[in-house]
Amino acid sequence: MPGILVYASIVCDAVSMPTREILGAARGVAAKTGEPVSAALLGSGISSLTQDLIEAGADSVHVCDNEKLWEFHANAYLKVLADIAASVNPRMIIFPGEAAAIELAPRLAHRLKGGLITDCIGFEVREDAVIFTKPVYGSKALARMRVDGPTALVTVRPRTQEPFGPDQNRKGDVVTVETALGDIAPETRTVERVEEEVFECILEEANVVVSGGRGMKDPESFQQLRELATLLNGAMGATRVAVDQGMVPPSCQIGLTGKIVAPEVYFAVGISGASQHIAGMSGSKYIVAINSDPDAPIFSISNVGVVEDYRNVMPTLIDELRKALA
Amino acid sequence: MHIVVCTKQIVDPEIPSGEFKVDFEAKRAVPDQGEPVLNPYDENAIEVALQLKDRDKDIKVTVLTMGGESSQKVLRRALAMGCDEAIWLKDPSFEALDSAGTAAVIAKAIRQAGNVDIVLCGRQAGDWDMGQVGALLAEELQTACIPMAYNIEKKENALFVKRETENGMAVLEAGLPLVANITNSSTNQPRYPSVKGVLMAGRKKIPTFSAGDLSIDAEIPKRVVVEELTLPSYDRQVLFIDGEDGPEKAVNLAAHLIKMNLIK
Lengths: 326, 264
Hints:
The complex is a heterodimer.
Chain A: E1 4-8, E2 10-11, E3 14-15, H1 17-33, E4 37-43, H2 50-55, E5 60-65, H3 74-88, E6 92-96, H4 99-112, E7 115-120, E8 122-125, E9 130-136, E10 141-147, E11 152-156, E12 173-176, E13 188-195, E14 208-212, H5 221-231, E15 235-238, H6 240-244, E16 265-269, H7 275-281, E17 286-291, E18 304-307, H8 310-325
Parallel strand pairs in A: 1-4, 1-6, 4-5, 5-12, 6-11, 7-11, 14-15, 14-16, 16-17, 17-18
Antiparallel strand pairs in A: 2-3, 8-9, 9-10
Helix pairs in contact in A: 3-4, 5-8
Chain B: E1 2-7, E2 9-10, E3 22-23, E4 28-29, E5 37-38, H1 40-55, E6 60-66, H2 72-81, E7 85-89, H3 99-113, E8 118-122, H4 133-141, E9 144-155, E10 158-165, E11 168-174, E12 178-182, H5 195-203, E13 208-209, E14 224-230, E15 239-240, H6 246-259
Parallel strand pairs in B: 1-6, 1-8, 6-7, 7-13, 8-12, 9-12
Antiparallel strand pairs in B: 2-5, 3-4, 9-10, 10-11
Helix pairs in contact in B: 2-5, 3-4
C-alpha cells in the first residue's frame, strides 16, 4: 500500500497551523485512496506532540527526538528525513510552505530522486496519479502538474487547505527513529539573531489586515495604517515595493514571496494590485480597496472600492470607525 | 574569490492580469508579450555579488544563464551592471527542463568553470515560482545552502550572511564554498548600468556552452510534468462607494462596513 508522508513543523512548541492544514489535505487524499498517512516529527523535546499529530490526522508518527535537532540544521534534518522516507516508502511527501520546509523539500527531492512541486494550492486524486494545482506567473495563471516517478514531493501554500479535526478519539502508532547523528556537523553558525518588535497581533493570524503599497509616500504615512489596524485589533501589512523602499520592515511583506494572509477584512490602501501581492491576500473574506486610480487591478478582486487619494480618506475613516466602536 | 550568479530571463512579471496571455497548447506564457526581463530576484543577487566586489577588487563575478537567443540580453545587462564575465548555457535540449534538470546542467557548468567559491541565485523566478534551483545546486555541489539571504560580507576567510527569518533577521557565519538564495531587501536594490558599463558589456565576448560542451550525452530526465495551464477567474463584483470628496466617501465607507457587520 503506497502512503503519504507529512513533514510536521513545530512553532512555539506546538504543531504549526500549516502542518494541520497539510494533514487535512493528506486525509482528503487518503479518503479517496485508502492509503495511510504518516507524519515525520523532528526536534528536541518534542515527543509529547505525537498525539497532537494523530488527532490532527496522522495514522502514524515517526519521531526523532534528539538534542542535535534542537536548532534547525539542514544536513541533520535531511539525514533523518531520508531514513524515515526509506522506511515508510511513501509515494507522496507533503511539506508545509514554511521557511525550513522550503529549504528541506528540494534537497530531500534530490536525495530521493523524486520530483518536487512547490507552493501547491490544490490536490486532485486520479486513478494513476495525484494532480497538483500551482499558481504560476505570479498567480496570473494556474498550472496543473504531476510528478513522473515513484516519489512526488510538494510544498503547500499556507491557508489554502482545511485542517482536519482535531479528533481526540483517533489512535495511531508512534515509531521511534534512531538515526545516528554523531558525525553530522552544522554547515553554518548563527552569530546574531534579531527579532522584530511585533506591534500588533501576528500578521498571519490577524482578523483584520491594513496594508499599504506603492501609493504610500513615506514611512510616516504607514502610521495611519497602523492606527487603523490597532483600532480594529488587526495587523499592518505592505507590498514588496514598500519593503524595497525601506518604508516598512520585510516581516510586513504580504504576497507570493512574503506572508500569506486570509483575514476577515483586508484593507488595501494605495495598492495597485500586482498579481504577486494578490497571491498573498486573495483568500481574504472581504477586501476593501482605496486607490486614486479607478483602473487599478486591485478593484477587480475587491468587494468594496473607494476611488480617492488615501490621504483624503484615512483620517475621516479612522474617526468614523472609532466613533462606531466607542 | 570567484562568485557565479545564476540568472533567468522571464516574461515581464509587471504585465497586468487582464493583459497576460497564455499559450494553452505549449502550456506556457506567450513568450513575445512585452520585453522579457531579468528575473527581479536575480537582479538582487547580482547586486549582492557586486557589493562584495565593490569592497574587494580581487573578487570576480560571473553571470550565468540558460536559455535561447533572446536571453543574451540578460547577460549583457548583468555585464553592464558590473559583472566581469558571462556564461551562456544554450542548447535545444535545455529548453523546458524542470528544476532538477536545470540544476544538474548548471552544476556541470559550474564544476567545469572550476574554483567557484560562491553561487548566488534569486530565491525564485517570477515565471514558474518554483524556488528550487539554489537548494538543488547545493546538493549537486555538496555545499551549504543559505535561503532568504540578502547581504553578504567577507571577513578574511569567513562569510557573514544576513538572512531573513520568519520574524526578523539572523547573521550566519559560513565557510566556502557556499550557495545562497537571495531575497529582496532595501539594501540590495539593483544598481543601474553606467554608460561606460553598457559600452563595455556590448563589446564583451560571451562564451556559449552546449550539452556537448558540458559532456552531457544522455537525455536529461524530467520528473515534473505540466498537464494543463489555465487562467484563474476572480468572481468578486466590486461596489464603489460614492461621495463628493474624500471625507464624504470615508463616511460612506465606514457606514457600509458597519452595516456589513465587519467592524467589531
